[in-house]
Structure to design on (288 residues):
C-alpha cells in the first residue's frame, strides 16, 4: 500500500524520503545475490526502461513553471501559503502521473482535470518556445544500448500529447527507441496503465516488446524516488538513479536505487559492470 503526503512515501510499511536532499555522488552498482540454477546469459540486461524529463530530457524548471499556470487556473495565488504547499508537493512527487498529483491537490475530478489540462497546455507552449533539450549524452547512450542489442523504452508521467511534443521538439523520431509509454486512464483494467510509483509501465514495456525472459533482465533509470520505487516493484535487476533531475542520492537510495550515476550517459557502462558482477558471482557459486 502506498500513501503520500507532502514529503514522504510509505511503501509496505517502510518510509522513504521523496524530497530533494544533498549527498555524495557515486557510480557504484550493486547486483543482487545470484540464485542457484540460472542458465548462462540469464542475467544479461535485455530491456532498458528510461524516464524522460530529468533523465534523458533537461527539465530546467519546466514542470514547476507549467504547474504555476495550472495553479492559477484553479485560483491558487503565487506567493500564498497554499501555493507554496502545493509546489512542495509537486517537487516531492516528481515522476508521478501528473493527473494523480492534481487529484491529490485539488480534490474533485473536475478541478483536477482542469488543472491537468492547464498544465499540459503550459508545458506544450514552453516546449514549442524552444525550452526543451536532450541531456548531454542521452541520445548517444540510447544508441549505444540499442547497438548492444538491448531494447530501449521511454516512459513519462505526462499525457501522450505532451510526450509526443517533447519527442518532436528534440527531433527524436520513432526509430530512436523501440517503444514510448505514458500513463493511460481507462475503465478497462486491461487497457489502463497507472503512472509511477506503480510498476505498470515497466511491466507493459516487458509485455509489449517481449525483449526479456524475466524481470531480472530489465534495467530502469530515472531521476526521482518514484522511478526507483517503480523499478523495484517491477523486479528489475538494475535500478539506476541519475543526478540530473529532481532528487539527490540519499532519496534515490532510500527508494531502492541499486546504482546512482551522474547522468544517463554512464548507464551503458553501469549495465556492463552489473553484468560482470553477476557473471563473476555465478562463476564463484558454480565452484571448480
Amino acid at each position: 500500500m502506498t500513501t503520500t503526503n507532502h514529503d514522504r512515501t510509505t511503501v509496505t510499511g517502510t518510509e522513504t524520503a521523496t524530497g530533494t536532499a544533498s549527498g555524495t555522488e557515486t557510480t557504484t552498482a550493486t547486483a543482487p545475490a545470484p540464485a542457484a540454477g540460472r542458465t548462462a546469459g540469464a542475467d544479461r540486461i535485455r530491456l532498458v526502461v528510461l524516464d524522460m524529463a530529468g533523465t534523458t530530457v533537461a527539465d530546467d524548471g519546466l514542470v514547476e513553471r507549467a504547474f504555476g499556470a495550472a495553479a492559477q487556473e484553479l485560483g491558487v495565488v503565487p506567493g500564498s501559503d497554499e501555493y507554496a504547499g502545493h509546489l512542495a508537493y509537486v517537487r516531492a512527487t516528481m515522476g508521478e502521473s501528473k493527473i494523480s498529483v492534481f487529484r491529490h491537490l485539488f480534490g474533485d475530478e473536475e478541478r483536477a482535470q482542469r488543472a491537468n489540462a492547464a498544465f499540459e497546455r503550459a508545458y506544450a507552449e514552453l516546449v514549442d518556445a524552444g525550452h526543451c533539450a536532450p541531456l548531454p549524452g542521452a541520445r548517444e547512450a540510447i544508441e549505444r544500448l540499442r547497438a548492444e542489442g538491448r531494447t530501449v523504452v521511454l516512459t513519462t508521467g505526462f499525457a501522450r500529447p505532451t510526450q509526443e511534443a517533447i519527442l518532436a521538439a528534440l527531433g527524436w523520431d520513432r526509430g530512436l527507441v523501440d517503444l514510448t509509454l505514458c500513463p493511460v486512464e481507462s475503465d478497462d483494467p486491461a487497457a489502463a496503465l497507472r503512472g509511477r510509483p506503480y510498476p505498470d509501465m515497466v511491466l507493459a514495456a516487458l509485455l509489449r516488446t517481449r525483449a526479456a525472459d524475466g524481470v531480472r533482465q530489465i534495467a530502469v533509470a530515472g531521476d526521482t524516488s518514484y522511478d526507483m520505487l517503480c523499478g523495484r516493484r517491477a523486479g528489475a535487476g538494475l535500478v539506476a538513479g541519475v543526478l540530473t533531475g529532481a532528487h539527490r542520492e540519499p532519496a534515490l537510495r532510500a527508494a531502492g536505487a541499486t546504482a546512482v550515476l551522474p547522468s544517463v550517459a554512464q548507464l551503458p557502462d553501469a549495465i556492463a559492470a552489473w553484468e560482470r558482477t553477476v557473471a563473476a558471482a555465478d562463476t564463484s557459486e558454480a565452484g571448480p
Observations:
- The chain is about 40% helix and 15% strand.
- The chain has a mean pLDDT of 83.
- The two ends are 45 Å apart (CA to CA).
- The first helix runs from residue 62 to 73.
